[in-house]
Amino acid sequence: MATVAFHTLGCKVNSYESEAMLEIFKKRGYETIDFESPADVYVINTCTVTNTGDSKSRQMIRKAHRTNPEAVICVVGCYSQVASEEITGIEGVSVVLGTQHRASIVDFVEEYKSTHKQIVKIENVMKVSRFEDLSIHAFENKTRAFLKIQDGCNNFCTYCIIPYARGHNRSVPLPLIIKQIKELLAQGFKEICLTGVDICSYEPSFSGVVKDILEQIPELPVLQFGSLDPAAIDDDFINLLSKYSNIDSHFHFSIQSGDNLILKRMGRRHSRETVIDLCKKIREIRPNATFGADFICGFPTETEEAFANTCKLVEEAGLSKLHVFPYSEREGTPAARMPQLPMEERRRRAAVLRELSKE
Question: What's the pLDDT at 144?
Answer without folding.
Answer: 87
